[in-house]
Fold this sequence. Notes:
2 copies of one chain form a homodimer.
Chain A: H1 17-31, H2 38-45, H3 49-52, H4 59-72, H5 83-100, H6 104-109, H7 119-131, H8 136-166, H9 173-181, H10 183-189, H11 191-196, H12 200-205, H13 209-220
Helix pairs in contact in A: 1-4, 5-7, 5-8, 7-8, 8-13, 9-10
Chain A binds a DNA duplex through α3.
Amino acid sequence: MKTSSGRAKGRPPRLSKEDIVAAARDIIADEGAEQLTMRRLAREIGCTAMALYHHFQSKDDLLLHVLEDVAARLPHPVLPADPRERLVLVCGLMRQAFVENPWVVPLVARGEMVAPSAVWMTEEIIAALVGCGLSVEQAFDVNQTIWYYTAGQVAAAVRQAGEAGQKPAGPHYLETIVAEQGEQRSAETMPYLSRLAGVWRDLEAGYSYQRGLHHILDGALDPDSHPAR
Amino acid sequence: MKTSSGRAKGRPPRLSKEDIVAAARDIIADEGAEQLTMRRLAREIGCTAMALYHHFQSKDDLLLHVLEDVAARLPHPVLPADPRERLVLVCGLMRQAFVENPWVVPLVARGEMVAPSAVWMTEEIIAALVGCGLSVEQAFDVNQTIWYYTAGQVAAAVRQAGEAGQKPAGPHYLETIVAEQGEQRSAETMPYLSRLAGVWRDLEAGYSYQRGLHHILDGALDPDSHPAR
DNA sequence: ACCTGAACACCGTTCAAGT
DNA sequence: ACCTGAACACCGTTCAAGT
């Protein structure tokens, strides 16, 4: 019942916010966020770029709506009772959501944009941390730590996935550095890195987000690790 | 003795790579990385934008040289003998370097650019982790975890610092959400976040990178946390 | 070899005008 | 109220030409 007062005035809209958001979402999904420009979006919809500004204040405003649209479609499964299991599962869902929507990572990491439909994850994480025996303040702290870790890990994972798409994965920069300054000298100045250079990519591929998360939880849930503040 | 063979041919260069890099570094330091454009840089130096392309393949190539220049100027103090103390100190230096040069965060986090002059930090971290009793493979893993955490934390810290500069720090988005859907309903659907919304910024300001790092180390250096792989 | 001038193919956004 | 057309103020980069 949104027809506020009397009948609608003026020209009836040909474009709806929902349609524009949906079209933007499709372009990002199909061709990546870099391909989403106001002109490109307008071409897809069949209007001029300027018509979009009648529905959204700016491109950022539009992106905020796309973000909320994506967040509203995220899975919200039933969670296990054990708080630590809940924690690992929700963090995994959060990470998965970012991996599948890599364009939101820089926006959300910079803290400029947030989707109301996704805050339940943070609520669950803090609640589960409290369930593990932390105070609310401690839970806030650990939630931050987890978030920073997750954001950084996803950024790196997205990068690797992007690289895998195009090039035949040339030599890692560490190999280049070792090659440039010579193996002899490299082994002296950076013994570990010169050994690891060749297998760096393999080790990277074997990295487990969940294992790292468990390390953080092991350290953060230890009662001794939280002095009175 | 780089004058390879015979005397120099052609027109003597008016611009040097070093001068261009220095000018670019100054612009970024004074006005931020967003202000560095090829045209702006050329104006500063007193040439056309196109002249720059005779010294660098692209803007990215130029940025790579600026990055290396910055990395080469980072402090490299004597480190304590105790491996855990070394770890915390080197990570602090790394974080500090990023906080003081926020423009490198997205570049390095995406893994596209790396400065040879800064790899000693990674070498020290891995060596210290081995000194704490880990295998090289385990040390690699934990180094990744630390790196992800650091990258994410710095990105957030830089954001906050940027916000503090301009606006009088409007309400946090959590407060906005709570206000929009009502305190009553918010307290039901997200009890912890509705309680934390008002003090979120204060808690954020009280977050300690070092404390989070210690949590990670506590968990990761525990012998039980590394099953055979 | 080193640098210039003009141009290409883009951006997000403003603003006056049309229906 | 809704949309168009032209324009503004930018980008990074290419390419032929000058010295």
